[in-house]
């Protein structure tokens, strides 16, 4: 894949939160994890041509992060007590599995959002815009904050039930 393409930049940008969470879950505090994430980003950028279109970008990114984490662990080994290799490998494997389930949950969320009425989907979309607040939404809609909060509560419940059903169906397949 061309690293200068908007698609590749979008993939890297979209994976930042998940890769950072993956690194933190392997035992690094936030500041060190962000440093490792930046090293991972540089490697992903350099190795963009090795990513295969259509494959799981997040899994690819986490695998690169895994090797950077290993390098940091080797350096830290002399400084302090760290997880033994078996525990570390177990944690890494579990987090990779969880990362894969995030894709399934994201897909289920998108599907369930599509099943909402246009009004409900707009309300949820508006609520999760940067800087949005229930108070501002209520002012624009001419409703009380309580009415908007109650509507959002019900919509979230509908989404949660729909996602749970889809996840159960996915597991059964």
Written description of the protein model:
It is elongated, with a radius of gyration of 20 Å. It folds into two domains: 1-102, Rna Polymerase Sigma Factor, Chain: A, CATH 1.10.1740; 116-173, Orthogonal Bundle (Arc Repressor Mutant, subunit A), CATH 1.10.10. It is 78% helix and 0% strand. The model has no long low-confidence stretch (mean pLDDT 87). It has seven helices and no strands. It starts with 5 loop residues before the first helix and ends with a helix. The chain is mainly α. Helix 3 (57-77) packs antiparallel against helix 4 (85-115), helix 4 crosses helix 7 (145-172) and helix 6 packs across helix 7.
Rounded mean pLDDT is 87
Rg, alpha carbons = 20 Å
Shape: elongated
As residue ranges, the low-confidence spans are none
What is the H/E string? HHHHHHH
* Structural class by secondary-structure content: mainly alpha
Helix content: over 70%
Tell me what portion of residues adopts beta-strand conformation.
under 5%
CATH fold assignment of the largest domain: Rna Polymerase Sigma Factor, Chain: A
State the name of the first-level CATH class of the largest domain. Answer: Mainly Alpha
Distance between the termini: 32 Å
Estimate nothing, just give the exact number of structural domains: 2
CATH architecture of the largest domain: Orthogonal Bundle
* Total DSSP E strands: 0
């Amino acid at each position: 894949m061309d690293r200068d393409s908007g698609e590749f930049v979008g993939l890297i940008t979209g994976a930042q939160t998940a890769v950072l969470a993956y690194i933190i879950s392997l035992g690094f505090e936030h500041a060190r994890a962000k440093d490792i994430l930046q090293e991972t980003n540089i490697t992903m950028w350099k190795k963009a041509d090795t990513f295969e279109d259509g494959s799981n970008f997040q899994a690819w990114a986490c695998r690169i992060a895994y090797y950077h984490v290993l390098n940091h662990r080797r350096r830290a080994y002399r400084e302090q007590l760290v997880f033994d290799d078996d525990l570390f490998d177990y944690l890494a494997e579990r987090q990779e599995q969880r990362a894969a389930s995030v894709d399934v949950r994201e897909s289920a969320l998108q599907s369930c959002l599509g099943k909402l009425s246009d009004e409900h989907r707009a309300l949820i979309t508006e609520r999760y815009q940067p800087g949005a607040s229930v108070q501002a939404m209520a002012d624009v809609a001419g409703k009380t904050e309580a009415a908007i909060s109650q509507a959002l509560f019900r919509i979230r419940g509908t989404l949660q039930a729909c996602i749970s059903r889809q996840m159960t169906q996915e597991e059964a397949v």
